[in-house]
Design goal:
heterodimer; A: 132 residues; alpha/beta; Transcription Regulator spoIIAA; six-stranded mixed sheet; B: 349 residues; alpha+beta; Heat Shock Protein 90; five-stranded mixed sheet; two-stranded antiparallel ribbon; 8 helices
Amino acid sequence: MDCLIIPATGRTPGVSFDFASGHLRMTGESYPDDVAGFFGPVFEALRGFLDCADGAAIRFDMELLYFNSSSAKALMNIFQMLETVAKGGRPVTLTWCIEENDDSMRELGEDFAEDLRYVVFRMREMPAGGVP
Amino acid sequence: MSFNLFAAEEEALAKARALEKRLDALAPDCLAEFRALVAAFELSTREQQRLVRVSDRLQAQLSDANHELERRRDEAEAALDRLREAQEAIIQSEKLASLGALVAGVAHEINTPVGIAVSCASHLADATQAIRRRATDGELSKAEFARYLATAIDTSDLILGNCERAAQLIAGFKQVAVDRASAVRRSINLAAYIQDTLVSLQPKLRPSGHAVAVDCPPDLELDSYPGVLSQILSNLVMNALTHAFADGRAGDMAILVDCLDADTVRLCFTDNGRGMAEEHRTRVFEPFFTTRRGRGGSGLGLHIVHNLVVGVLMGSISVESAPDRGTSFTLLFPRRTPDHELPVQDLAI
């Protein structure tokens, strides 16, 4: 599988995993009615990608502006999967995107980064209300 | 002493570290596995703390959103109240304007008989002066006196006839105007009342040459609000003159009244003017709906009609129309208006 593309809906985020280039993105808002139904296929594809150990660099952009608790746990699980491959020597960069002036989201990002030792964590500000 | 939500987890971890030391001494081969377990528990505790923060953030956002929603709802309600007040004020001024038009109509109508009476009286006065001079001079002939008598009889007949006409008009107008202004409920003969109202509209009807034919049972008595009926009819006529016969279009109007049963009156107001398209027809009773915005249309005439029929007469009104097929309004209302609290704003002028 080269790509996993899931368009965003009102309650589920947009997923754009370009496995060929190692660029993974999640955008929009995430509060799915069926958490397992949404994240199940995402995790399966991600696991498949991380298991084939070609060692190429991975870039993960977390661009969610709003997510519920289940999605937060799903994100932590994804970050742990990335931490595991990074610990194994694969370069992983995680970019936590926040809207300008969203201090509580910034604090959450710092919090989420607490358990990342091998993943390179970056914080990026986006203009409020305006990323396509 | 500080409060710690995760005191129990930290206590468990402290115990685990103590146990780790004992394991190191007693069963060193289990140590790596035990440490992994402790690390997993630590991670899980941190994740739990994170989730609590996420959840708190969401709750705070929800609360903010609710407050914002409440504020906007209050704003929208206040705006709606202001809009209703403004609408009420416009409707009141519209009613005043229609009362003003009525008064102007009265003045115009009475002007004719009073004018004739004045010129006849003046003519009689001149003739009387002349005959008096002739009599004083002792030159009055029999024939001259006979001519004067004939003039006096003719002019006094004209004066009397026109004054009676004026008195009759004033009585009719007075009733219509009083009804309009006071909204008193009383018994009326519908056919006669329709005539009184149409007379007050003559100054509007005559120049354009549009006639209003009336077909109403002569003995139909209503116990209702005649001022409201008069206003309804005036507005329907004015609406037809403005729209159905716009730009000098020829045509006529008709008022047809019959009784569906002993208690229900049906009044149809029809014109054979230019009619209207379906998208206009469905909206004619909406307040401020007008096809003549900026050209004198307030969009309230038919809205007021609708309010008066439904709110005061406790009836219903419907409209049928098609382009170039004329328009027909059908009013159904009780012959005796049921007792109810009158919506004051519909009546007070």
